[in-house]
Design a protein that fits this description.
alpha+beta; single chain; D-Amino Acid Oxidase, Chain A, domain 2; Helicase, Ruva Protein, domain 3; binds flavin-adenine dinucleotide; disordered N terminus
Length: 569
């Protein structure tokens, strides 16, 4: 089935699922890991239904540090398998999703030569409790050498480099003058995680006419025929029967199992927050690199240029998944301390924050292990005690989603007694297919597919990868007017509604675009988008006003973007 014929509104998908009443595999949870499984199974010709109670990739998958990384510090926990897999997946994503995953030069400022060297390697072999200590140059050198070794795949990224104080300060003059060295290596940054997740989802939908993905549909219980779900838009409830159920609810995995009458105690998530700063001086100070370091209490910190803003994170605090995760004032104070620690000449204030976000990592239950040392690896639990087998995913980072989707699909195929027919290794993702790799190729591609789009060509290619050709074709046919400066238009919005399963205003403001992330979702912009969406989604005046209110309230509550700030923008 071609993509064009699957460009259905959610209501059509919903009707198809309700009429069929059953599927082969029901996946509960549409974060990146549920979506990765959905793609893998769809490609094998296995019919699947994915239900997500909110929007796709709006849970932990929307709260990441936007890094596709090998996880150098997991070496400290002795997680060599995970680091090797992560580095391999990072290198693969640079090629399969080059529209959203880009090489990221990362610099670690180092204050001591030996700190941490005695305690940390012992953790390879011993328990992982205790307070983390600042890592010294010798330890970081050791880690980076192992990291380079795992990265050897024909040079996806260059090797690491160590510099002394003088050269380091020449390269990054705003850095704290008390540093002794810097270490610089490459990882990758993920510019639009939510859009990348959507691309994986679209690839699945277009590969299998029997696979359906429904956002705003929640698994709320089980009945004689299968899983009872509720459409959160209409309030209607119905059952979906399946041969296998897979619980990919991330930090909420135990809660979903509870709803399905299974008691599990797999999860022990920790909260992590970030702030986004509109601070041109700090942006310049980073010189386009991620500054990745450790505070004196041993926690990992990043200061990172993204979309013309600076992302600062993160924390690691025990959390209850029943409570919404929010970035607190204490966390903001902590981030400001860190910035002052690394860039003491710069002043940052709350006025500079345009967006905050927070989420819970889907970590395994970890008793007395300190949050920073809890395994980031994943495992799969199979429960065959009921009439339908349930697989639960425990853990799983963004970086490893493809490999994890494959491992999880293999377990599902084994339960179904079926074999694998297609591998996702090396398969390009969505608008990463045919993505122009050089400046010359890029301008040729734009001339050929985006001719007439003028100054919008770069923005279209950045947002959609090579899918931009379809978007532009649509815009040319349907007519167009600007909605949010140069960054969004009515034609683009219409394309999103028809192709990207938009249900609510927040879907557009937070996940189909980066308007909220960059602080560009002012009240005026939100209202104009709502006005344009209303006829496309058949909203009456009341629904439209509700959508505006809900968006304003959510931005304030979850992202610290108050009405005052919204009015300014
Ligand atoms: C602060 C922080 C920083 C991170 N940084 C990175 C990083 O830089 N790089 C990296 O690789 N990883 C990072 N991670 C980890 C990564 O983001 C997550 O591990 C990954 O996104 C988990 O994806 P998931 O699909 O398993 O879970 P989720 O994205 O949480 O998806 C689970 C989904 O299940 C849905 N759901 C729950 N209950 C139900 C139900 N009953 N019915 C239907 N749907 C339901 C939820 O709404 C949710 O969308 C970070 C995580 C955090 C929190």
């Amino acid at each position: 089935m071609t993509e064009a014929t699957r460009s259905a509104l959610r209501s059509e998908e919903l009707r198809a699922v309700r009429e069929a009443q059953r599927t082969t595999v029901l996946i509960v949870g549409g974060g990146i890991n549920g979506i990765a499984l959905f793609r893998d199974l769809s490609l094998q010709g296995v019919d699947a239904v994915l239900v997500e109670r909110s929007d796709f990739a709006s849970g932990a998958s929307a709260a990441s540090s936007h890094m596709i990384h090998g996880g150098i510090r997991y070496l400290e926990n002795g997680e060599f398998r995970l680091v090797r897999e992560s580095v391999q997946e990072r290198n693969a994503l640079l090629k399969s999703a080059p529209h959203y995953v880009k090489p990221l030069r990362t610099t670690v400022p180092i204050y001591s030569t030996f700190s941490g060297i005695l305690s940390a390697p012992l953790r390879f072999l011993t328990h992982r409790t205790g307070k983390p200590k600042e890592r010294g140059a010798v330890l970081i050198k050791l880690g980076l050498t192992i990291y380079d070794l795992f990265s050897r795949d024909g040079g996806s990224v260059p090797r690491h480099k160590f510099l002394g104080r003088r050269r380091s300060l020449q390269e990054l003059p705003q850095l704290d003058e008390n540093i002794k060295y810097t270490a610089t290596y490459f990882d990758a940054s993920m510019h639009d995680p939510e859009r990348l997740a959507l691309d994986v989802l679209q690839d699945a939908r277009s590969s299998n006419a029997g696979s359906f993905a429904l956002n705003y549909v929640e698994a709320i219980g089980s009945d004689d025929t299968g899983v009872l779900v509720r459409d959160r838009e209409s309030g209607e409830e119905f059952s979906i029967a399946a041969d296998v159920i897979v619980n990919t609810s991330g930090p909420w995995t135990d809660l979903t199992n509870e709803a399905l009458d299974r008691e599990t105690r797999f999860m022990g998530g920790t909260k992590g927050s970030h702030i986004v700063l509109d601070h041109p001086e700090l942006l310049r100070a980073t010189q386009g690199r991620e500054i990745f370091f450790e505070h004196s209490d041993g926690r990992i910190v990043l200061i990172y240029p993204l979309k013309g803003r600076v992302l600062v994170g993160t924390t690691d605090i025990e959390a209850d998944p029943r409570e919404p995760a929010r970035c607190t004032e204490e966390e903001v104070d902590y981030f400001f301390d860190l910035i002052a620690h690394v860039f003491p000449k710069l002043t940052v204030s709350r006025e500079d924050i345009v967006f905050r976000f927070s989420g819970i990592r889907p970590l395994p239950r970890h008793e007395d292990t300190a949050p920073g040392f809890v395994s980031r690896d994943y495992r799969i639990e199979l429960d065959e005690s009921g009439s339908v087998p349930i697989l639960s995913l425990v853990g799983g980072k963004w970086t490893t989603f493809r490999a994890l989707g494959e491992a999880l699909a293999d377990r599902v195929l084994a339960v179904l007694g079926r074999g694998r027919t297609v591998s996702t290794a090396g398969m390009t993702i969505g608008g990463g297919t045919g993505f122009p790799a050089t400046d010359a190729a890029r301008s040729r591609w734009q001339q050929r597919h985006l001719s007439g789009s003028g100054s919008r060509a770069d923005a279209l290619l950045a947002r959609y990868g090579t899918r931009a050709a379809d978007v532009w074709k649509h815009i040319e046919q349907c007519g167009d007017r600007p909605l949010a400066g140069a960054t969004l238009s009515t034609g683009e919005l219409e394309w999103m509604v028809h192709n990207e399963l938009v249900v609510r205003l927040t879907d557009v403001v937070l996940r189909r675009t980066s308007l909220a992330f960059t602080g560009d979702a002012g009240f005026d912009v939100i209202t104009r988008i709502a006005d344009a969406l209303a006829p496309m989604l058949n909203w009456g005046e009341t629904r439209k006003q509700q959508e505006i209110e809900r968006t304003v309230q959510y931005l304030d509550d979850a992202h610290g973007t108050s009405l005052e700030t919204l009015a300014r923008n």
